[in-house]
Specification:
DNA-binding, 290 residues, alpha+beta, Aminopeptidase, Arc Repressor Mutant, subunit A
DNA sequence: CACGATATCTGACTAAAGTCAGGTAATGCT
DNA sequence: AGCATTACCTGACTTTAGTCAGATATCGTG
């Protein structure tokens, strides 16, 4: 009862019955669970049928029948894929959207009631983020995104908030307007976001300059995702992006108030160099040749 | 993607697939999930068939058939209940114990691999405890137990550890030998443990004295279970136990370094009284007449 | 001891999920 | 153009889960 494995297993049991309860309430809409899951997958933007099949782990015959039953109910329509007529894509009809919305309401309501029952909501959410990140760590996707996208802006605002907490002298939030966004778009640079499911949990920017090198900026990993080696993965992905852009020299600056960062750079082929800019915040400078 | 409800739902998705993976690996032993679950429930000590049926939420007809199939496999035996021949109790045969052990290994292995993959194991476990307590809060059972039982001793050791952290002057652990255990057994007193599934998450002792009152001691609630009103439930349960023991006056002492405790007492009918003992640690004293 | 309640079992179902062996059409590659 | 591959569909099937209406035996109570 006290050892780590028992604690994990207690968690499993608690969560199994909660998950079962949600499934059960899905049945309330008079449709088998399999069909409901397919409808929801399509509603969440998985239009490609093969993708849905993969995601839900269904046999192609079973998948086909579930699609047919949803079609007969008038909830979805299927079309041939525009570039490959073997593949099919599904989309919700008007009625399907209504039905999908009803499932969404069920899911949202149960999530809300879980939060409402609990007076420590923020602690509970933090715990959930941590666990979700740990469970899906094999499925963390690094995606190049626009630095002005919602996902990127979320990461950046979290990043600046954390700098504010970590730096003794605080941090000037006006800097977070991000004048560098232009330099972090292809072909000058790149911006990579780490997504766990739908939640952004880390980012890194590659900022092109006119001085013969590119800078790595704004490396951030959500607290709930630390200890998973995500920082390293993000760095590797940016270096790869830099190579495809023909960049051969990288620089970055950081602050000694962020010791994890310095440690990461030192162990992955970066070498410390003298100050190369006049930013007030950084006090450590690194360089790496690709 | 950033709002609380989305975070809960991301957690749900992550956990659903983890749970599904465990179910799937259970299937690897060539037995339908239903039968495997019954076998495991019996292995975990739920010998009474009605109890298993309740726990797993099965129809009695289905339950009956699953038992039959396990019997035919030679994994369990059933007997009439000793005090009530309508009821049946099941027990594992030698072969059933082996099979149960194999399922246990699967569960343990997946729990271990989850922990091993994660460098923040302690944070992960704390998060799991918190969530498990929140999800099973309706199923927290308060049980009278011997103050020397494993469960009680676990609670007490956590309690003393916390006192050590909270008190500026530290706390003398030698006191945790618990010389009062005798006075916390019926008919002199009582000791109540709050169990969430198999994990003790809180306790309270009622210590009989020869001075015309009984004392309430060692009220503790695990950090992962705070905010659920468990302290209040424990106090109510002890007061109820005191009534059944014919006790009419209760006293307790506490320390102002534990403000939640003082707050709880003041709002539940206790009144502050002058010091009534010479313990070095407490500096606040309360009394309540039943 | 009669009688209603309780615990389990049996038989006869239905629905849902999953499997598997072809079949059709489009595609990619030589 | 020929041919293997891919993506999906269809038909025929099995297994699992779940439901429901009795049947049987036992228990608690008056």
């Amino acid at each position: 009862m006290l050892d780590p494995v028992s604690r994990v297993r207690r968690f499993n049991r608690a969560v199994t019955s909660a998950v079962g309860a949600l499934d059960h309430s899905f049945l309330g809409r008079g449709r088998p669970l399999g069909a409901a899951r397919v409808l929801n997958a399509i509603g969440h933007g998985r239009s490609d049928i093969g993708e849905v099949r993969d995601y839900l782990g269904l046999d192609s015959g079973l998948m086909s029948r579930l699609l047919r039953s949803l079609e007969e109910e008038g909830l979805i329509e299927t079309h041939a894929h525009e570039n490959d007529a073997r593949r099919r894509v599904a989309s919700l009809t008007r009625a399907g959207q209504r039905e999908f919305a009803a499932y969404e309401r069920i899911s949202n309501t149960q999530a809300e009631s879980l939060l409402a029952r609990n007076s420590q909501a923020e602690a509970l959410l933090a715990a959930m983020d941590l666990i979700a990140s740990a469970l899906t760590r094999d499925r963390i996707a690094l995606t190049e995104m626009d630095p002005r996208s919602d996902e990127a802006r979320y990461c950046l605002s979290e990043y600046y908030a954390e700098l504010g907490r970590r730096f003794k002298q605080g941090f000037d939030v006006s800097l977070s307007r991000d004048p560098d966004a232009e330099d972090m778009r292809r072909p000058r640079g790149s911006f990579i976001v780490a997504m766990s499911d739908t939640l952004p949990i880390g980012c890194v920017g590659l900022k092109g300059t006119d001085h013969g090198y590119a800078e790595i900026k704004r490396l951030w990993v959500a607290p709930s995702a630390r200890g998973l080696g995500l920082g390293k993965r993000l760095m590797e992905a940016t270096e790869e992006a830099a190579r495809t852009l023909g960049i051969t020299l990288l620089r970055l600056d950081t602050n000694s108030a962020l010791p994890e960062a310095g440690q990461l750079y030192r162990t992955t082929g970066w070498r410390e160099i003298p100050r190369f800019n006049d930013d007030p915040y950084p006090d450590l400078f690194f360089e790496k040749r690709l």
